[in-house]
Write a structure and sequence with these properties.
eight-stranded antiparallel sheet, 2 domains, 313 residues, Thermophilic metalloprotease-like, single chain, alpha+beta, 27% helix
Amino acid sequence: MDKLHRAAGRAIRQSLKVRKGESVLLVTDEPKLDIAKALAFWIRRAGAETTTYLMPETLRPVTQPTRLLRTLAEKATCIIYTLEARLKEKPFRSYLVKTGMSSGRILMMPGISRDMMERLIDIDYEKLHLFTKKVILRLRGAAAVEVENPLGTALRFSVKGRRWVASSGDISRRGAHGNLPAGECYTAPVEESFEGRIVLSLIDDKLGRGALEFRRGRLTKWSGKGVAAVLRNIGSDETGKVIGEFGIGTNRKARLSADMLEAEKAFGTAHFAIGDSYGLGRNSSRHHYDALVEKVTIRADGRIIIKDGRFCI
């Protein structure tokens, strides 16, 4: 058995824990077909029913599901998304996330590559989970979180009263939503407390450097070609310009790259998202765009959690 098939088995058996009799919807495209085939093999071996929806390039970008796909998504007990990541397809992704969480559970792998599957899926999830929970314990309930880096990031906000999520590979329960590769913890900052400037290394996928400035949780100024592309996609939808997420990468094997799916999991990095808060905050949106911040120093109520990208816990 090659590395890809072993990793796919790990995803289906130990992360999603697909069970006999389930209905699994696999949404994929031609570049990810080898990955989809490996996942489908293990779904079938688990005794579940698999429906594969192959998105042809001629229909992209897809912003809304067809009526037939809506029916499939709403009937599925589990959805797996492996499409190549596209900026204009964020509303489509948002629809699948919300539908998957309401009707079953969803595994999102936008932009997943064979290399990522082979390096980052077949790992010790228990060890990852224990460390990720340790990070959450140091941050939970903090009234004052400060984040800075040498490039000029300077933020202050509260996470008091907000629920944290340990995204460490367990996507087995109804209502669950997560990524593979795994390895982050995240929450939604208290919106009106979020103040300052983010100098980012990557926004969304492959869109490069830029800056975001916030006042009371709302985006007020920005710069960078990648940020401009994101803002064009958001258009006049003000829900896409509200802070929606603060996350920290906890996967020791993840690398800084142009693919946000992996980069946001990189050990000791931080990421912030504008748009939907996935029910962790007050903002609901069909948009969600992650921004990666490297070499961070993070303090929670004055206590250093990360210094220059290195954990101090």
